Amino acid sequence: MTHVISIQSHVAYGYVGNRAAVFPLQRLGLEVTAINTVQFSNHTGYGAFTGDVFSPDHLRNVLDGVESLVGLDGVDAVLSGYMGDEGIGRAVLDSVDRVKQANPEALYCCDPVMGDIGRGFFVREGIPEWMRDHAIARADIVTPNQFELAFLAGRQIDTLEDALEDALDAAAALRAKGPKVVLITSLEVAGDDEGHIGMLVDAESGSWRIATPKVDFAIPPNGAGDFTAAMFLAHSLRAGLTEEGPARALEQTAAAVQMLFEHTRRAGTRELAVIAAQQDIVSPTVTLHAERLR
Fold first, then answer.
1. Can you tell me the distance from the alpha carbon of 272 to that of 292, in angstroms, rounded to the nearest whole number?
2. pTM attached to this predicted model
């Protein structure tokens, strides 16, 4: 059974971080060891929350316990998301090193959560530079949004007219830093229907894109990026990172995201409808085909 260690935040109520990743991964048949960087009552987008941030030593101690119990040689991948500070980031990369030492074939999927178009950076000062200079080079898969990609690659992706070529160039520049595969989780391109938004994957074997319908939420839910990164990692582990594997992983991921968004829209909640959508996450009722770009 494929085994993933997911190092992310945890909330008691709602679906962000590990709560948006672990159950969907389990429904896809993966064994997941969840290491939580925080435990909050709810995500911070609500304004008020309670709970605690765990220390880097806490994360290392938890991994120590897992390793002493079952070892790390059976771990196939590490998934990480939001990192509150550099100490947590270093603990995450230490965990990646330990897993890869035990299993050199293990993958590291880094979701570089830092900011977004219209919001700018929303992480602590210094985190974007640390992510760019340390985490990215160690990752096999990175899953930035359009804003994060531009910063990490040091490229401008300014206009809708040039967004596609700019994004491809930026993804290639990012791969040159170390990652094998770059998934751009949201990309707006001129010529696409205004009611659609793109996802693009770039790998040595090629580049592919899918445009999916935008969903009109009363309040956009948090956690979509966490869910997307988890789905792409799961399908990449099945399809592989070479040849057409990235395209197949993109198709399955985009379909799952579309189904989750539709369930969430119907539910009328600001939380992702992960439970209601669970069967459609496993077996989407939509079939999407990736367009090859290069």
1. 30
2. 0.96
